Amino acid sequence: MRSEIVAWIKQHVHHGDARDVYPYWPAPAAIISDGAYGVGGFHGDPRTPESLADWYRPHIDAWAKYSRPSTTLWFWNTEIGWATVHPVLAEFGWEYVETIVWDKGIAHIAGNVNGDTIRRFPVTSEVCVFYRRRLEFPTADGVKPAREWLRHEWRRAGLPLNRANDACGVRNAATRKYMTQDWLWYFPPPDHMGRLVAYANTHGDPAGRPYFSLDGRRPVTPEEWAGLRDVWRHQHALTNVWTEPPLGGEERYRGNGKRSAPRIHNPGKNATIHLNQKPLAFMRRILAACTRKGDVVWEPFGGLCSAAVAAAAMGRNPYAAELVRDFHALAVRRLCETLMR
Ligand SMILES: C[S@@+](CC[C@H](N)C(=O)[O-])C[C@H]1O[C@@H](n2cnc3c(N)ncnc32)[C@H](O)[C@@H]1O
To answer: Do 128 and 250 share a structural domain?
Structure first.
């Protein structure tokens, strides 16, 4: 058992730069990024946000390259840090979905003040911004987003829009939901997509076949269509504002006690080991929403590998990297404890 875990750790938790291992990790269902903030928070974190776009660019490039169309990205940062990096994410095909605000509450203010910050509303938040891959399809008339592509292929087949209802065996929902150009558009579920595809390729103009093809040779199958979409599992009564105090208690690794670790930056007796350790509850929440059992999860900036720890406990398949030896060692210990439970 122990030797199996050691072998697993070697393969899944890299000590070094994430950029060196991206090509060797399996394609992710989700990427949880908690890297530079532009606040000088860890060795290598720029002191200000201006250079963050350059800091992240090679990572974002690799995430795009090794992702699937269904991969989601969860980008933790400060508000200004994220705003600075967003154009690079958009450039590499990451489509903004929403911003989650971690509201740490009034307790976070204590001691967090200088002559500058006292002249503004105290900041008690961090953000985690949710992205998915922009879903686009090449056509003879240029690249089309999914919504336009559906309509484009149906029209190209020479079919009136209302025939989408016949294809799906419904009264009017298919035309209204799948063929609309406005924001009320719905992504057709795989069974309905299968019917639309079969209908267009049977009743559409034979000269233009195949319709709804990803490779220009044959139509997309319902399974392939399902694979283009990210997983989403609704969690009742959760909004995009997550109100939780900064991480404390048993879960927080500190410079002494049973949670002690190799001395890092010589923390005081009760000082936190890693300034940025994220609550496991947040990582669980993200992973429950966007992954299934067995799915690959990337955590390129591991720290104490909170995302990988949550992922392993939930039966996902995490891959993490961490540059600093002592953080890496502690993350390995956390993961071993999780896997042995
Ligand atoms: C914000 S912390 C992550 C904290 C983590 N979410 C946790 O809960 O413990 C970022 C970490 O990324 C590491 N790091 C920075 N650049 C890296 C890179 N290119 N490859 C791997 N790790 C990196 C830093 O050493 C730092 O520990």
So the answer is: yes
